[in-house]
Design goal:
With about 325 residues, the chain is α+β, with helices and mostly antiparallel strands. It has one domain (about 1-320): Ribosomal Protein S5, domain 2, CATH 3.30.230. The protein has 9 helices and 13 strands. It has helices spanning about 60-70, 95-110, 120-125, 135-140, 185-195, 200-220, 225-245, 250-265, 285-295, and strands spanning about 1-10, 10-15, 30-35, 40-45, 50-55, 80-85, 145-150, 160-165, 170-175, 270, 280, 305-310, 315-320. Helix 1 (about 60-70) packs across helix 2 and helix 6 (about 200-220) packs antiparallel against helix 7 (about 225-245). It is globular and about 60 Å long.
């Protein structure tokens, strides 16, 4: 019998959606990348009561996740368990923390209670993920650079339009302003509700960039073309969301930093999801470390945290122990 399951995840960068309130066709969709850090690391073990060892807001979230899993799988008895979180993703920062945590707990319980391997869609449905983006869902099991095809109807979890391995040496410098959060929850729902439908022309343009520029450039290891296409994609999406988030970038300081980075010749700059995280694509590990060190030493950006991440070209790692 399995005595414990340890799950280690990455995080999700979301470069933007492809469609919103379309007159026809699929809604949402988008392009994104799984990165190796930040991430969740948690251990799940059977116990005589639910015992959650995690800092807020994740302790409360895990309690809700357990309730949802039990309600969504009435044909299975999900016993009480101990869940200990030793590493986490900053919440509401553009890293897809909710999906990665929900998928991690869902996967751990599936493995712990000797269920046949459930696929990503089944795991996501149990914890109510995939209302809009499915990049974090597919990324949890596959990793890599992903293009989400979008939802054909409200109940669907969107399929992938494409997935490719991300080049080994490319790095992402992450800039996270402290004490600032992106839109989430009811505020996010209201923001989507207030936005007008994205034009068919804009959707067509974004789909073209995603499938005809981003995917092929990653597959070919074409850093220059991928960087420029990524920036263009983000600018189009950011312009659409500007009425909801206050500009192409949600945070004015990150807007200023994006201009500084572009002036330095760093082309692949953008915001992940609602932000506030800014990412900068850099071609080598050494140049990424150098850039992060320079920005950290500059007092202009002293209210930010800097981190260098690599792509995660595989799914979350699950390790089981037997008793």
């Amino acid at each position: 019998m399995t005595s414990q399951v340890e799950i280690t995840t990455g995080a999700r960068l979301h470069f933007g959606i492809l469609s919103h309130v379309p007159s026809g066709g699929r809604e949402f969709g988008g392009a994104g990348l799984m990165i190796d850090s930040p991430g969740f690391q948690l251990v799940v073990q059977p116990d005589d009561r639910d015992n959650i060892e995690a800092e807020e807001p994740y302790r409360s979230r895990i309690i809700q996740i357990l309730e949802r899993i039990r309600a969504s799988t009435p044909h299975r008895v999900i016993p009480q368990c101990r869940i200990r979180v030793s590493r986490s993703i900053p919440p509401h920062s553009g890293f897809g923390s909710g999906t990665q945590l929900g998928m991690a707990v869902s996967r751990a319980l599936s493995n712990l209670f000797d269920e046949d391997e459930a696929d990503a869609i089944a795991l996501a449905r149990r914890v109510g993920r995939g209302a809009r983006s499915a990049i974090g869902i597919h990324g949890f099991t596959q990793g890599g650079f992903l293009v989400d095809a979008g939802k054909a109807d409200q109940g669907e979890i969107a399929p992938l339009a494409g997935r490719v391995e991300f080049p080994f040496d490319w790095r992402i410098v992450l800039v996270v302003p402290r004490d600032v959060a992106g839109l989430f929850g009811a505020v996010e729902e209201k923001a989507f509700a207030r936005l007008p439908g994205m034009s068919a022309t804009t959707t067509q343009q974004l789909r073209h960039i995603a499938t005809e520029q981003l995917l092929p450039s990653v597959a070919a290891g074409d850093f220059a073309n991928f960087s420029e296409a990524l920036y263009e994609f983000g600018q189009i999406v950011g312009s659409y969301f500007a009425p909801a988030q206050g500009g192409v970038f949600a945070n004015p300081l990150m807007c200023r930093l994006a201009d500084v980075l572009r002036a330095r010749g760093i082309r692949g700059v953008g915001q992940s999801s609602w932000g506030p995280t800014l990412f900068a694509l850099v071609e080598t590990p050494d140049s990424a470390d150098k850039l992060a060190a320079e920005l950290t030493a500059d007092a202009t950006w002293q209210g930010c945290d800097f981190h260098v991440a690599a792509a995660m070209n595989h799914g979350a790692v699950a390790q089981t122990g037997e008793s």
